[in-house]
């Protein structure tokens, strides 16, 4: 299932009918398969960095899943917001990239050409740049190599 342009919870096969406690803010589910999430992962990491860090700090405080529901909901809302912005601004490039990932076993190296177009669109439209942690110092990141093995 792809990232819908206007997600609607009823469009998904399984939704747990158990209501959340009143003190937990309501949030829709992301409603996506792995390919669009994999395609957008580095941008979600950059866009939602503060929420992700708060969530991880909360998880380190207490391993009880209920302890960090509020922080987790903020991360989910942020990811949904970014996915909507990607659809609004870079729909064609986003879809081309995640479709490539979907048909190539989620392997980035097999999808560098659509990835470059997608990255350029996201940089231009949303001012988000792809950053890969732990990339070797003094060398271009793998997604910016000029003559990659796969393109």
Task: Write structural notes for this entry.
The chain has 151 residues and is mainly alpha-helical. The chain contains four helices and no strands. The longest helix is centred in the middle third of the chain and has 35 residues. It is globular and about 50 Å long. About 4% of the residues have low confidence.
Based on the model shown, name its key terms:
mainly alpha; 151 residues; 4 helices; single chain; globular
Rg (CA only):
17 Å
What class do helices, strands and sheet pairing give? mainly alpha
| SS summary, helix count | 4
- What distance separates the N and C termini? 26 Å
User: How many beta strands in the DSSP annotation?
Assistant: 0
What pattern of helices and strands is seen along the backbone? HHHH
User: How much helix is in the residues?
Assistant: 40-55%
Total of domains = 1
Tell me the major beta sheet.
Answer: none
User: Average pLDDT, to the nearest integer?
Assistant: 82
Q: Runs with pLDDT <50, length 5+?
A: 8-13
Broad shape = globular
| Percentage of residues in strands | under 5%
């Amino acid at each position: 299932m792809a990232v819908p342009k206007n997600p609607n919870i009823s469009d998904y096969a399984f939704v747990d009918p158990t209501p959340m406690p009143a003190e937990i803010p309501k949030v829709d589910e992301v409603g996506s398969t792995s390919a669009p999430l994999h395609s957008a992962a580095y941008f979600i990491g950059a866009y939602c960095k503060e929420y992700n860090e708060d969530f991880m700090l909360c998880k380190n405080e207490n391993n009880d899943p209920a302890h960090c529901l509020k922080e987790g909901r903020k991360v989910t809302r942020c990811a949904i917001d970014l996915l909507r912005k990607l659809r609004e601004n870079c729909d064609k490039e986003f879809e081309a990239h995640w479709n490539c990932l979907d048909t190539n076993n989620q392997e980035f190296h097999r999808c560098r050409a659509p990835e470059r177009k997608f990255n350029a669109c996201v940089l231009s439209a949303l001012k988000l740049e792809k950053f890969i942690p732990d990339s070797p110092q003094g060398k271009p990141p793998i997604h910016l190599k000029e003559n990659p093995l796969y393109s």
